[in-house]
Amino acid sequence: MKLVVLGGGESGVGAALLGKKEGYEVFLSDKGQLAAHYRQVLVERGIEFEEGHHTEARIFAADVVVKSPGIPDALPMIVRLREQGTEVISEIEFAGRYSSARYICITGSNGKTTTTLLTHHILTQAGVDAGLAGNVGRSLAAQVAEEAHPVYVVELSSFQLDGMFRFRADIALLTNITPDHLDRYDYKFENYICSKFRILNNMRPEDLFIYSLDSEAVTQHLAGMNVVPEQAGFTYGAGEGAAAWMEGNRVNARLGNRSFSIDKDEISIHGRHNVYNAMGAILACMRMGLSDEQIADGLRTFPQVEHRLETVAVKNGVKYINDSKATNVDSTWYALDAMTAPVVWIAGGTDKGNDYSALFDLVKEKVKVLICMGIDNAKLVMDFSPLCTVVDTTSLEEAMRAVRRYAVPGDTVLLSPCCASFDLFKNYEDRGRQFKEAVREL
User: Fold this and answer.
1) Which of 14, 153, 393, 434 is deepest in the core (most CB within 10 A)?
2) What is the DSSP string of 333-399?
């Protein structure tokens, strides 16, 4: 059997390692240049690869193709492969075919990384041998090949879900759905929603689907479905009919004949969005059989997540927060909602068709200055100039000069870009780390 892997990043190299272990004739092809670490792994394991181009004759001879989630389904090569009957799948789908582990799978437009890391932290703190995979941690395929675990907590993007067909989650957690990545879905929100709901594929009645009752897109889509697994909804509201809810200052959960409750101030990460994240993690860990004290201990000891409302420093009375992972409107809404001091807000990057109107009331209430940081900030400038002072900059250095000009003691400087990072940075991690370095140099 011939396996072709398209893309030589974390997921691609992981798929190649698993393919080699399972006896495939493996060929990895990347149109760009491989990172030195991944190139070395392929050489050491005797896996054939190419970089800088695609040899189509070899690719079209494959029995199975595992493609990077960053490669669009609409790419002519992918369309032709499927037209000729070649199976094109994601690395997660490929890994799942060689593992009988239990899977806690987490997706959503916002909050999925924090919820994934929190769930994994609670489990491992309690002594569960759980792997961390998907968009965080080592690739699932590499772990299945070389360091198998009986349980995996897997963060899934819509792109990964699009390439999953036989894979089944034991616990599926959908944090929320708001418009995002619409350029990959013909600019149709419903297409993106359907992609997220692929997380329910193949689930059984005894499996558990955890979802936000406060996400209109989720509840409306769910109403039109004949959902197979057991359902557990969570809400920030009164909690009627919810499996997890807020009551006063307490986060409550109920699953089967079990109940759990904790004061929200005991949870190490704060803000409304993190209460939602905690509710999802609590329900998943209850289903996994953890005790109340094990769950509470994990919630109390969970560290800050890099690039998600991460406090960088306080300099001259000004607090600096790195929220670089906020690449859409909804994520930035939660960041602004959590702010209690006057905000100098840094936003901008590659616009994904954003409608910023949901932010207007919060900006009027909390933001004193918006510093736009991107190659083309026209839309941000136009939308927010009536609401606050707006400064147009085209680099991090220029943005930080504006910060020094406008931020005074008692202010919070919030990097919550609301946009993708690819105009000025490699990715959101690169953006966040460069911002943190610039703060430390102030």
Assistant:
1) 153
2) HHHHHT--S-EEEEE-SB--S--GGGGHHHHHHHEEEEEEESS--HHHHHHHTTTSEEEEESSHHHH
